[in-house]
Design a protein that fits this description.
The protein is α+β, with helices and mostly antiparallel strands. It contains eleven helices and five strands.
Length: about 240
């Protein structure tokens, strides 16, 4: 038995023994059937990273699933079929994520950014109930800085049409204090949200356990919303 087969057997033994498995581990087991000769662990991680929950994976379209590295058309169709079966039998799968308060959002950001070895920028899109229905995660070739062009952010907001949006990224320096670039990006994000009618709830910066800066809890988000409201900016321009 090689290392790959050994890993598969260990996770199957955990499942058979009644141990609680993480969502990515359950997905990994499910993918054994679709990809019998492939290490499904990184694919399962990538799927959860992209769609945030098992429900998100199972509700994703074939096209969206194929955008994940390691997922081909056949595997995407398999996962979509599993999702349809789960929906018909039980009304869905996985656990929903809600961000109804700063505490909820802070917890999500900490759980997702903990242990990252490169800078990651994430967007959490919510509906009116506060349910996070999509997570968009971005990394860059520069380990210490990740950027997203205004046009790309506008396209994301236009595509998913969220009621609300939260932003999170990590600092590898150990300091969670925002940089001028962080301030500027938050201003740009607020302008984009204002144009689309989306509420920008917060932008959190994670720099390690217990080190999280929040534009909301610091009060900084209020000033940014005041200055970068699109309708107000247009009125101010007309006055000049």
């Amino acid at each position: 038995m090689n290392e790959h087969d050994g890993h598969r057997q260990r996770i199957l033994d955990k499942f058979a023994g009644g141990e609680a498995l993480e969502q990515h581990e359950l997905l990994e087991i499910l993918l054994f059937n679709a990809l019998p000769r492939v290490n499904t662990n990184p694919i399962a991680h990538a799927l959860i990273e992209r769609f945030s929950t098992l429900r998100g994976v199972f509700e994703a379209s074939v096209k969206e699933l194929c955008e994940v590295k390691g997922v081909g058309a056949a595997t995407a169709a398999y996962l979509r079929c599993v999702g349809e079966c789960a929906s018909l039998a039980y009304g869905g799968s996985g656990a929903d994520i809600y961000a109804k308060s700063y505490g909820d959002f802070k917890k999500i950001a900490e759980e997702r950014l903990k242990g990252k070895t490169s800078e990651v920028l994430e967007f959490y899109f919510t509906d009116k109930t506060g349910k996070v229905f999509h997570i968009e995660s971005h990394t860059d070739s520069d380990l210490h800085r990740v950027t997203l062009q205004t046009g790309a952010l506008s396209e994301l907001v236009a595509k998913y049409k969220p009621f609300g949006m939260c932003i999170a990224h990590n600092h590898l320096t150990g300091s969670c204090e925002p940089s001028p670039q962080d301030d500027r990006f938050t201003e740009v994000a607020q302008t984009v949200c204002s144009l689309s009618g989306t509420i920008l709830y917060d932008h959190c910066i994670y720099a390690g356990e217990g080190k999280v800066y929040s534009y909301f809890s610091s009060g900084a988000i209020d000033g940014i919303k005041e200055r970068f409201d699109f309708n107000k900016m247009i009125k101010d321009t007309r006055k000049k």
